[in-house]
Amino acid sequence: EVQLVESGGGLVQPGGSLRLSCAASGFTFGDYWMHWVRQVPEKGLVWVSRIKSDGSETNYADSVKGRFTISRDNAKNTLSLQMNSLRAEDTAVYYCARGVGGSRYFDYWGQGTLVTVSS
Amino acid sequence: QSALTQPASVSGSPGQSITISCTGTSSDVGGHNYVSWYQQHPGKAPKLMIFDVTNRPSGVPDRFSGSKSGNSASLTISGLQAEDEADYYCTSYTSSHTSVFGGGTKLTVL
Question: What is the Cα–Cα distance from A119 to A114, expressed in whole angstroms?
Fold first, then answer.
C-alpha cells in the first residue's frame, strides 16, 4: 500500500526556517517525481515544487523560488522541503504527492502537515 | 503562474448532472493533455478523479468524466449522489515545467 506521511510542521516566526519531511513507503520511491502542494486553510490548492526521480532536476512556484529548497534521499525514501525566510502568507497545510510521468498527475497524497508563520 | 479559473460553486439535485469548467491558457490547459481533477472532502487529502483529461483511475465511478476544448477543460458528474458533495480542483502541467491548480469549486448536492 502506498503511503506518504508528512512531518515537521509547526509554528515559526516570520523570517524563520522550517524543514518538512515526507516518508514514503509501499512503492519504489526512486522511480517517481515527487511534489509539494500547499493549501491555506479553507482556500485552494497551490503547487509549490517538484523534484525528479533521481534528484537531478527541480522546479518551483515563483512565490517560493529562492526561499524554498526541495530535496530527496532515495536511500531513505524521504522527500524534504527546506523553507527559509518564511512569511505569513506561507501559512498553509503542506502536502507531499507522488507525480506520475513527471507532472501529468498526482496519484497519491499524504495527509498534510500544518505550517503556521506568525509572531 | 496565474491560477486556472473555476466557478466558485455549483449545485445540483441527486440524479442530475453538473459540469465544472476549468479555463487556462495556451501555456497550460491548451498546450498539454495533462489536465487532472481532484476531489477533496473537508479535512481530507485530495483524491485523483480524472487524469490526462479523460481517464479515470480504477475505483472512480464512471459517473465522472472529463473533456477538453482549446484552453478549457471540464469535469462532468452525472447521476449526482450525496457523497459527491465536496470541493473539486483542476490542475494542468505548464510550459514552464510547473503545475497550476484552479481555484476550486464547491459542489453542493441539494
Answer: 16
